[in-house]
Amino acid sequence: MHKNVEREVKATISKKKDFFPVQPGLEKYLRQYSREKRIPVQYRDMKHYSYSMPLIDKQGNDTLWETVYYSELDAKEIYPGLTRIYALLKTDGDMTVMEHLAVDRIDYCSFGNSNPFRVKIINNFNDNYDYFYMKVADASRIYGLELEHILSPNRITYLTDQATLVEEHIAGIPGDQFIDTHLNSDDANQTRIAKEFVKFNERCLVKLLGDMRAYNFVVDITPDFDDIQYRIRAIDFDQQSYEGKKNLYLPQFFKENLAFVKLCMKYMTAETVFQYQREERTLIANRIKTSRYQLKDLLDIMVKDSISHPEKVDQLKRELSNHYQNNIFMKCHSMGELVKTSLRIVLEKTLERQKKVD
After folding, report:
1. Does residue 255 belong to any structural domain of this protein?
2. What is the pLDDT of residues 203-237, one digit of tens each?
3. Is 302 part of a structural domain of the chain?
4. Which terminus of the chain faces fewer neighbouring Cβ atoms within 10 Å, N or C?
5. Which of 169, 142, 306 is nearest to 237 (CA)?
6. Among residues 136, 158, 186, which one ends one of the domains?
7. How many CB atoms lie within 10 A of CB 71?
């Protein structure tokens, strides 16, 4: 990463990513691992709102979300169904929690690919609240969620039902807001932030998760006994293994992330960056070994699935071959094969290093 940070940060994302339906193989996987469940409200039902109003934040800025309102008749059907979905998502269907839960607000975003509905659930006993999202079930996004769950330090909770995807809310400060409000604050540990960005950058490349611009990830801040810990978490998985340009899978190449890149230039040497990259790849290799059976089931399906276009697959396999100086990528014919090959290289190199140590 260090030798590339001074390049101009350029990346071109397809204006509108295609949706890829969930095929029978992936649907069977989702049922096997308890991701597929019958839910009382589908995404298409959410589109039947009567009117909407722009959602303005506390500073008076347009959030690009709209608060939507339903007729009394539709609300009587949709709102109880949404609280049941929340119970399925959080308590595996324990409906006793529904007695004190209610839908407080529903927002819709027409910006971007997934056009999600964000549902705000409030606890009537203490006014505590939480969110979840209703989206169209796109196969590439589901693969991104599963790979994140298996290979990252983060657990992901979501459900699918036919053409509907329900995702938990991932808490944290959006990356663009973090840059504006926290990055240069007096109590920020900029060295740790730079370290986490290097590790996040590496995870995205290994998993081929693209479009990690600052507003597509959050920063989770955890006070430790003597300092602050940071973790960068992806929140948008639309661009999982879709684009053909390798640099689109490296967050360092987006101009929106330039502030993080400058931190790395300031606090990291090439040797330090290499150390953190190797650390992250070792952690990924350990997760591969721990979840090898589930990961194999997922990749066996992903290899056969179509979640991009042939010209993008051909471009990416050439660029990855050049990046790794390894022609094994040229044998791949799908995005799933490219992900599988990327993970195989991580695992094999880690095992080689461990043998040398032993």
Report:
1. yes
2. 999 999 999 999 999 999 998 878 899 999 999 99
3. yes
4. C
5. 142
6. 136
7. 13
